[in-house]
Inverse folding.
């Protein structure tokens, strides 16, 4: 394998200490990527087995191709050592509590009571509620099923065609993948730090991600406005609009969630100098990292204290809530861990630097990359979850764009978008679309055709932002 691989799959490099290491070439990375995707596609489509099993098998194949089985435990250790992994677990656990306490439902009712009287208001409420709640749950399909049970019937009753109602909810729910505190954001931060070699406060990175997200949320509203005009959709019937006073009375505590979650990170970003002066550089770094787990825990506790059914939220109930959610939680975490392991392998073999070097020689230009990379991500995301794809390829994508003159921070903030959002709305594996379609009971062909408009709009805006044609706050 070494004789075949040397100079093709990898090259041998001698460091200053005289130690010989293997460096994955750009062509070798391409071969590894194709083999990995082929294994995952075959395992998922032909054998109908879970994605994470396919990723595990592909990891073993990559170790064999690159001849790095001797380093397998270091890759596993590196994957399990990142604090971002445990932050993902914390936020996933938090989402289980939020769903159980019904505090999200109360927030949706408040939004409906505010926007329901506007023509097409049920759809605008779906965009508003689903984007934020999707960020909390970290799961597009789960968010469609949670908020969609309220927003989709409200949209249909106010004149939305079922296929449009299904896609409004799906496209809005998957915005959560690019809005903090989504797990995709945590993975993107790790990729950015790995590329720059410089620690960045979590709050500062989150602000950049919010700056990007604003444009995509605005685009959803504009696209929805056009659809409302085309279908001549009216406001909800007055009898169907929730009473604002009652909604606020029942769910005002849910409105504290954004403050609880966002305030600490704003403080971390805007007052970083003060934190460093009090705690030192090392202390400020630990403070920033600890926020991810601390905020998730505090939010979960407060949601229990404010829940209307808090008497039912006994320790036994909470344990049962986590137990019932393990079926969906464990595969997600397993996929992320395996994604980190593959990312560790690529990092060890300097794949990002090799690919970036090749791209610099090829010099395709930023415009070509802005069109090509989102298409590649759209294809890969059909079988690999967004957070796992960021873990595996985030460093490489940042390297490629940076070599073409793009702002690395902008590219990092866009990773959750191009890797995480499209995976749930792009056919044929559009899980968000299928979830919305199940609630709306819409026709498959009509839903698919309407979905393509949302996919096209998402892609076009991704290209525009990657080209730096729009100002992004925090970048």
């Amino acid at each position: 394998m070494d004789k075949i691989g040397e100079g093709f799959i990898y090259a041998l490099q001698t460091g200053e200490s005289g130690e010989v290491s293997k460096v994955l070439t750009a062509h070798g990375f391409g071969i590894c990527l194709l083999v990995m995707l082929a294994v995952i596609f075959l395992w998922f489509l032909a054998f109908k087995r879970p994605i994470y099993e396919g990723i595990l098998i592909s990891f073993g194949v990559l170790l064999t191709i690159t001849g790095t089985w001797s380093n397998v435990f270091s890759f596993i250790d590196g994957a399990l050592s990142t604090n971002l992994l445990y932050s993902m677990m914390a936020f996933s656990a938090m989402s289980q509590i939020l769903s159980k306490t019904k505090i999200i439902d109360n927030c949706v009712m408040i939004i409906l009571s505010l926007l329901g009287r506007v023509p097409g208001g049920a759809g605008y409420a779906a965009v508003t509620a689903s984007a934020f709640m999707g960020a909390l749950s970290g799961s597009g399909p789960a968010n469609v099923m949670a908020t969609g049970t309220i927003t989709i019937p409200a949209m249909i009753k106010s004149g939305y065609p079922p296929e449009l109602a299904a896609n409004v909810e799906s496209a809005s729910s998957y915005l959560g993948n690019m809005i903090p505190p989504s797990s995709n954001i945590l993975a993107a931060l790790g990729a950015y730090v790995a590329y720059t070699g410089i620690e960045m406060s979590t709050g500062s990175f989150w602000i950049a991600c919010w700056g990007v997200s604003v444009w995509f949320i605005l685009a959803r509203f504009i696209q929805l406005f056009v659809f409302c005009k085309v279908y001549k959709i009216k406001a909800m019937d007055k009898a169907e609009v929730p009473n604002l006073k009652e909604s606020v009375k029942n769910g005002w505590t849910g409105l504290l969630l954004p403050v609880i979650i966002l305030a600490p990170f704003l403080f971390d970003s805007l007052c970083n100098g003060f934190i460093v002066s009090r705690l030192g550089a090392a202390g400020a770094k630990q403070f920033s990292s600890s926020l991810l787990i601390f905020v998730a825990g505090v939010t979960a506790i407060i949601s229990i204290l404010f829940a209307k059914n808090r008497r039912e939220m006994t320790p036994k109930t909470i344990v049962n809530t986590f137990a019932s959610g393990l079926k969906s939680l464990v595969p997600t975490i397993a996929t992320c861990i395996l994604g980190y392991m593959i990312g560790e392998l690529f990092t060890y073999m300097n794949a990002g630097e090799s690919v970036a070097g090749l791209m610099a020689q090829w010099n395709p230009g930023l415009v070509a990359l802005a069109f090509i990379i989102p298409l590649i991500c759209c294809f890969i995301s059909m079988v690999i979850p967004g957070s796992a794809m960021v873990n595996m390829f985030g460093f490489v994508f940042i390297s490629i764009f940076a070599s073409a003159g793009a702002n690395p921070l902008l590219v990092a903030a866009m990773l959750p978008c191009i890797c995480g959002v499209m995976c749930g709305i792009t056919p044929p594996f559009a899980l968000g679309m299928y979830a919305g379609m199940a609630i709306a009971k819409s026709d498959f062909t009509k839903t698919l055709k309407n979905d393509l408009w949302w996919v096209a709009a998402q892609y076009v805006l991704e290209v525009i932002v990657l080209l730096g044609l729009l100002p992004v706050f925090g970048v």
